[in-house]
From TrEMBL:
Gene3D superfamilies with a match to the protein in the record: alpha/beta hydrolase
Organism classification: Bacteria, Pseudomonadati, Pseudomonadota, Alphaproteobacteria, Hyphomicrobiales
Domain AB hydrolase-1: 14-252
Protein name per the record: Lysophospholipase, alpha-beta hydrolase superfamily
Entry-linked SUPFAM superfamilies: alpha/beta-Hydrolases (SSF53474)
Length: 265
């Protein structure tokens, strides 16, 4: 008796959206299993961040980066996605997860994955997550200025479960200045609203047990708000990992879970 043919994928294309303080190179480990699974993977960077290496950007933050908004980042990725031959699976980390939700709200992508995402409007950050943003926000004219994550904070709150040697290497290679305005938007909900009830694409929201930047409580709150959609909305928490879950040891199980979730859609 003939077996039923396996349904085709929703897409063979993936767009990865990095988060604040990171460059696209932070996806180097995560993208490999996706490519091994037959996906074409794209990792475009945010506006302003194509102008040099991480070290060069830290030394000379680009004019205008401090005023970069979530909407402008979403516009940038929307223009890129418009050039693709098919709608992609959109995967975003941290503030890239916030941008992923904005793009889904605009109708982009066949599905989305928000890895430990920044909050959309209507989601109140818990104390731990808000405290991670306070150093960015409590500065004079923070709305218009860049902020570079200090190495000690990267070690303690961003990649706290990663080995020290990896933290040292990753900071030098990946960490760049980010937009103060973006963090003000995430904290106030201004400019980051989405109509969760209207979303038609599946969405996976993740948390990491030891995340001290986007705490599991915040990821769960985002998931609960996104569940107002009639579309499939899933949640998973990865034990033993930090906010650096897409690059630290253990990223393999994160990528494997995302791949399995996408294949079953």
């Amino acid at each position: 008796m003939a077996t039923e043919p396996r349904p085709s994928r929703l897409t063979n294309t993936v767009v990865l959206i990095h988060g604040a303080w990171m460059t696209p190179a932070s996806w180097d480990n995560f993208r490999k299993p996706l490519e091994a699974g037959g996906y074409t993977v794209h990792t475009p960077t945010w506006p302003y961040l194509e102008r040099g290496t991480a070290a060069e950007l830290r030394a000379n933050p680009p004019e205008g980066l401090g005023r970069l908004t979530a909407g402008a980042i979403a516009d940038h990725y929307a223009k890129f996605i418009d050039t693709l031959p098919e709608k992609p699976l959109i995967i975003g980390h941290s503030m890239g997860g916030l941008v992923t939700q904005l793009l889904l709200d605009r109708g982009y992508g066949v599905a989305g994955v928000a890895l430990d995402p920044g909050p959309i409007a209507g989601v109140i950050p818990d104390f731990l997550s808000l405290s991670a943003a306070i150093p960015v926000l409590l500065r004079w004219n923070a709305w218009n200025r860049t902020y570079t994550l200090p190495k000690a904070t990267f070690d303690a709150r961003f990649a706290n479960t990663a080995p020290q040697a990896l933290r040292d290497e990753a900071y030098d290679k990946y960490v760049v200045p980010t937009s103060g305005r973006l963090f003000a938007q995430a904290a106030t909900g201004i400019g980051v609203g989405v109509n969760t009830k209207a979303r038609k694409q599946p969405l996976l929201v993740t948390a990491a047990e030891h995340d001290r930047t986007v705490a599991p409580a915040l990821s769960r709150a985002i998931w609960r708000k996104q569940k107002k959609s009639a579309a499939r909305t899933d949640f998973v928490e990865f034990p033993g990992l930090s906010h650096f879950l897409a690059a630290e040891p253990g990223h393999e199980k994160v990528a494997a879970y995302v791949l399995d979730w996408a294949e079953k859609l």
